[in-house]
Give the backbone structure.
Amino acid sequence: MSQHLATIQWKRGCATFTDHQYSREHVWQFDGGVEIAASASPHNVREPYANPACVDPEEAFVASLSSCHMLWFLAIAAKQKFVVESYFDQAVGVLEKNEAGNLAITQVRLRPQIIFAGENQPTDQQVEEMHEAAHDSCFLANSVKTKVMIGAIAPS
């Protein structure tokens, strides 16, 4: 068992607050000393109360799932003696109403583009199997109800 800590800090400043016209900007602090500027998504709260230059929780959720999958994929590829030169993913999360009628990120589509180096190149089948194993191993994918898929987004 391990614990993972994050400190979230927000201050009102001089805003009235009860009129809902307060800044949603805040700071995420992690145990290694990294600080990240965060805010509500501009899709949910209009500017100037949300700052689109900051990371929002929805983006962080998608990034966390993508990052977890990538780290497992890299470990699995290395174990199978495949050399990964680069891994690029433009993951997309879909925020919509779930079965209970609540807004939720109901699906995340990972769209990894992987370049392998050297003579030992995996087949398409081996890449697919490594993705399946990475998905099964990802702590975060195992922790959420969100459907996590690999590949192109199907048209709505």
